[in-house]
Amino acid sequence: MSDGLTTLPSSTTIDEAVEIILRDGGVIIENLYTAATIAGLLADLEPALQKVRGGDDEVFAGTQTRRAGSLFARSPHMADVALSPLYLGISRAILQKPVDVFFGEDSTPITPDIQVGMTQAIQIAPGQGAQPIHRDDTVFLWRHPSFGREARVQIMVAVTDFTKENGGTLVIPGSHLWDDTRKPTAAEAVSTEMRAGSALIFIGSTYHGGGNNTTDERRTGVTMSFDLSTLRQEENQYLSIPLATVKGFPVELQRLLGWSAGDNFMGWIEMEGQMVDPHSLLARDDYPSALGGLPVS
């Protein structure tokens, strides 16, 4: 255990991790990423963090907290984060629940896709107070527990060590089971403590927040989410990542970034009168001018 959160080795199975996440709202995975991946993330993202200023408000954004997005455009090591078999497998197991729908008189199960919803490097500087406890699925105005399913599986990767003193992410275990009338309190939250390379995996309904940094060191983490593809992406990945960069990613990651229509055909595009999967455009040298004569500036 780590201050109320279960810690598992990176050799754990998807089923074991999912069981704990559904019980507690989150789990810590030790040494999920290699030292090379962590060093690469820090080298790629530190310059971006140095260029951005702190948040505009002391309460939520934190004037002593720096945030940088567009991480897939800024670091090739984000592919390692997203394509971790354990993180991706956990996300698929929790989010991709089939739904039975009727087409005429025939009942057909449809399984939703998942997609990258947001990315952010977060650096909490000395003197930053704790962030208000919140749920990240609030961006979708998600209600609890009426939908009966989760909208998001999020990861927070420790790029530097996370401690109680330097602002390790605060989590309220079990809060994913609360309805929307129960108010979270700071006293119920526990700190995420983990070494660089380890990660907290939690769901969008779990109350959490950045911790209070009382040390003289900066705490740096990288977070991203997998969300149901039936929901709008929180961070616009189409505008955040240059097309040439997207084309260089593995096919699985391209689809996870939104270049896919899925079984329920969300995100299709018309070409020559047909509704087609947008992923087919990435293989064309004439994209985006191939879009049926649509003007491209």
Fold blueprint:
Layout (H helix, E strand, L loop, with lengths): L6 E3 L4 H11 L1 E5 L4 H17 L13 E4 L2 H4 L3 H5 L2 H11 L3 E5 L2 E5 L3 E11 L27 E7 L11 E2 L18 E2 L7 E5 L4 E2 L9 E10 L8 H4 L2 H5 L3 H6 L12 E3 L2 E3 L2 H4 L15
Parallel strand pairs: 1-2
Antiparallel strand pairs: 2-10, 3-6, 4-5, 6-12, 7-10, 7-12, 8-9, 8-11, 13-14
Helix pairs in contact: 1-5
Characterise the protein shown here.
The model is unreliable at 293-297 (pLDDT under 50). The protein has 9 helices and 14 strands. 23% of the residues lie in helices and 23% in strands. The longest helix has 17 residues, at 35-51. Strand 13 and strand 14 form a beta hairpin. A 7-stranded mixed sheet has the order 1-2-10-7-12-6-3. It has a 3-stranded antiparallel sheet with strand order 9-8-11, with no helix packed on it. A two-stranded antiparallel ribbon has the order 4-5.
Helix content: 10-25%
- Major sheet: order of its strands? 1-2-10-7-12-6-3
- How far from one another are the termini? 55 Å
Q: DSSP strand (E) fraction? A: 15-25%
Structural class: alpha+beta
Quickly list its features:
seven-stranded mixed sheet; globular; three-stranded antiparallel sheet; 297 residues; disordered C terminus; 14 strands; alpha+beta
